[in-house]
Amino acid sequence: MRIVLAIAFAGMAGSVLAAGPDWQSVGENANGNKIYVDKSSIKPAAGGATAVLYRTELKAPLETLRGGITSMHSQMRVNCSDMTAAGIEVVLYEDEAKNQVFARNRAAKIEYLKEPAGSSADLVAKYVCKK
Fold this sequence. Notes:
Shape: globular
Distance between the termini: 53 Å
Number of strands: 8
CATH class: Mainly Beta
């Protein structure tokens, strides 16, 4: 009986740890791409900033020699005091459902900038800072 309870408890704990992103739609950017924020990723970061992961579903795939890029995940930090943001990493997907990554790019330098109105990062910053 103890073994059955231990296995059941371990299974429940594993499913909690394996929970995926909690995507919340925040709208469409100026290009018509759909933008989603992983609500579970919003956390305090260094220097008073807030870390966030967001997903961009492209309206039209970006064609490459290896196929079309259909979506991307972007990690960024937002400074709500002055509404600036810094890109950390971008992962481009040819097929997100199969986790087929086209490219992964990490920022060489973390630099906070004012984002253009209507851009993906602008929508995410407004969502994170609730402004």
